Amino acid sequence: MKKLLTLALAAVLALSLVACGGSGSIKDGTYTAQYKEPSHDWTEYLSVTYKDGVITDVDFDAKDANGNLKSEATAETYPMDPLPSEWIPQLEENVKAAGTADKIEAVAGATSSSESVKVLMAAVEKQAKAGNTEVVLVDNAE
């Protein structure tokens, strides 16, 4: 009788682990989310690569209508201080360290983009759980 009970409990445990692991886990791959419309002439995007459920690479940036990257903007083309080349790498590191949208720390001097990366990361996470590597377009909050 004890053997039967032990086998039954083991079977239930195994089935529950399989059920929990399937639908909510992150699938390996690169997932991208971007805003549908530009904000202040820039369209922000976030690409995140996962391997074994862990973030291995993050690319956050924005493009203007000519395809120029915000991370490459100069003081002449981007009138705010600090320059994006200073805070974008830190924001990318914060995404990688946090691992999830609700834990991403903001970067001083980049309040708007810090909020944007959280929104885009939430969309990336949804795509990664579904294993959908198509670029997802996110409605602008403005």
Automatic annotation (TrEMBL):
PROSITE patterns: PROKAR_LIPOPROTEIN. Pfam families: FMN_bind (PF04205). Residues 46-120 form the FMN-binding domain. It comes from the Bacteria. One of its GO terms (cellular component) is membrane. GO terms for molecular function: FMN binding. Residues 1-21 form the signal peptide. Keywords: Signal. The keyword Glycoprotein does not apply. This is FMN-binding protein. It comes from Ruthenibacterium lactatiformans. The lineage of its organism: Bacteria, Bacillati, Bacillota, Clostridia, Eubacteriales.
